[in-house]
Amino acid sequence: MTMIEVSGLTKRYGPDTVVDDLSFTVEAGQVTGFLGPNGAGKTTTMRMIVGLATPDGGSVKIHGRRYADFPVPLTEVGALLDAGAVHGGRKAYDHLLALAASNGLPRSRVGEVLARTGMSAAAGKRAGEFSLGMRQRLGIAAALLGDPRVLIFDEPVNGLDPEGIRWVRELMRSLAAEGRAVLVSSHLMSEMAQTADHLVVVGRGRLIADTSVSELMNAAGGGTVHVRVNDPGTLALRLSAAGATVREGLESVLVVSGMTAGDVGKLAAYHGLVLSELAPQRASLEDAFMALTKDSVEFQGVAA
Amino acid sequence: MSRAIVAEWIKLRSLRSTWYTLACLFVVGLGITTLASNSAREAYADAGAGWDPTAHSLTAYIVAQLIIGVLGTLVVTSEFATGLMRTTLTVTPRRHRVLAAKVAIAAAVAVVAGQVLMVAAFLIGQPLIDRQGVPNAGLGDPGVLRAVLAGGLYLALIALLAVGLGTIMRATAGALVTLVGIIFLVPALAGLFPSWMKGMLDFWPTIGGAAALATVPNPDFPHPWWNLAGLGLGVAGVLAVAFVLLRRRDV
To answer: Where do the TM regions start and end (chain B) (predicted)?
Structure first.
């Protein structure tokens, strides 16, 4: 079921078009990764979804309606756009209580979301004393207050330690397993590879790919085989003759593409060469992502 | 709407700065009242027939309006400064409700705090004036209760002006500098303005707008409640601009 429908969304700041005719959908029951380099327009798009910024063109429908038309928005959409968006002098409990009250939610919800995010012990502490990880948890707790069907998280693992990252990842998975639509932005492909079912890739405000994780992997190519052998020169010659592409890797490893590991092994055995290592390498999602977005990175480093 | 008001009240009461600001309001306000009342003899000698013991004990309003203005400003700008405004407007996308609730809460707190301060200033000031052998007033004397009541209303209007300025400026410093300019700088420079601008000063804070805080008629302002109403109209205008800007701007 389509929960978020973004169509033709456009946003300009002065001469810059930050989001450019962007269309995609977010489905229930899965984690949709919203991926792109810094400055690609991810945050601006999310702010337009919840009505914080007004689009210059296009529209966003959530469950068929405009966000601003929801009488009780917290029960429809939970959003964590900026973990820093709390008053440092206010206790976590009071922060959540004010948010719950603004939507007429019962006070008991505050205790429930604090428990789900592991924040019960910190309820009486002021948000200013929190680590970044705790602030992320508080933001996630706020998003869960109304038990919404749609969740939107902007870079939720930014600045978290490995334990925190794993916790967020598992939470996203379990929220999707409960049938909710989860939209998570990130500029890290590796992170999304482990969390998302579906990927929406943007660069310079435009849609680059709208695809599943496995499709993107396939599109990135079949991968390579790393070979260590007693006579690299001969093997390289034989492999090239058989149609594979060979280049020299680090520490005299041969990097072979265009041939499976099994075929490389057979060829070596046929020619009586001794292999000490034969390792197929999966194409990394990171490479696929870099290849997709290399034209749309805003500030590219210059190789020395 | 009532949900938004409950939320704003939770937000205001759960910040220590709210209570510090209110404590400051009373310490400074009543401190100035004490100082002013203790120097009543000189003031009486200067004033002669125009001596107004009620107005004299209410002079603390001049500084109290700045502190209550800080409170009004913070109701809005503390959310912009911390980014909380983004969360607030996400959970309440009908933005006018947020500002209306902030106006209601700021008005309620300011009218109570301002009224209590003005009554306390009068009750503390009059015995001190009496102790110096200077003529003083009682709450039941003609015009006294009205003047004290006007003091509380005036302070509440200044708090609402600050809410409006905070929404328009979105920054604590900018809003407070503007407020100081309005309540202190313009009155201090009033003599420099061309005559066509002087009409506005009849309703300006600290000048005509505060004329109702007296019991002795001021020949410049024969109907001081009209001046206070004019101030209220000006504040309403500033708030109207604030409502429009909050609805239109991206956060």
So the answer is: 20-40, 60-82, 103-124, 144-168, 175-196, 225-246
